[in-house]
Amino acid sequence: MRNELVLAVLVLGIVLAGGCIMESGKGNLVLRITDAPAGLDVEKAEVTISNVEVHFEGANATNESNASVPGWSTVLNETKTFDLIQLVNVTELLGSADLEPGKYTQVRLTVESAVAVINGTEYNLTVPSKAIHLVHEFEIVEGETTTLTLDFNAQESIHSTKDGEYAMKPVIKVISEEEQTGGNASEEA
């Protein structure tokens, strides 16, 4: 009996130390962010993201986030700023959440602002639509972690305007962990 108790305490300690505790009946989604290498003279490309949500398949699109009702579920509800140039071939945690198991069809993120340094000059970038919808199907499985990487392409996202300023129309691929290790399929926005 004592050995069983010691074993149970050890297992619980390992699980807690690994951060693998998730709500019962839920699966975990981890979102990461990265940037692909490119060749423009962009020295810095900071993007500020304030909200990230995912959409459960078959739910009413107007149904706002609620833990017990399918629809939009929040993964990130705080402001985070990333320098996409510093993320070339590197991933950084964007957010994570325990979600109801099932099929999800979209990732929606809010880009609050963007700033770029191009040829030594800093520009506040106009972002035409702050809400970016990425259509990408993924499955949340009870007791398992699903990892998606949002691969921003800063070089393709930044465009010069007619008045000599710059704008950002985000070009983002959603890549699942399986696609990173095996295939090449992804969705762009």
Short synopsis of the structure:
This protein has three helices and 13 strands. It is mainly β and 189 residues long.
SSE arrangement:
Blueprint: H1 2-18, E1 27-35, E2 42-56, E3 72-76, E4 80-83, E5 92-99, E6 102-118, E7 121-125, E8 131-140, E9 145-152, H2 154-157, E10 158-160, E11 166-168, E12 172-176, H3 177-181, E13 187-188
Parallel strand pairs: 1-9
Antiparallel strand pairs: 1-5, 2-3, 2-4, 2-6, 6-7, 6-8, 9-12, 10-11, 12-13
Mean pLDDT: 78
The overall number of domains is 1
The largest sheet is:
6 strands, antiparallel
Helical content (DSSP H or I, runs of 4+): 10-25%
Principal-axis shape: elongated
- Rg: 19 Å
Unreliably modeled segments: 1-20, 60-69, 183-189
Number of DSSP strands? Answer: 13
By DSSP (H or I, 4+ residues per run), the number of helices equals 3
What structural class do the secondary elements suggest? mainly beta
**Beta-strand residue percentage:** over 45%
N-end to C-end Cα span: 57 Å
Write down the secondary-structure element order.
HEEEEEEEEEHEEEHE
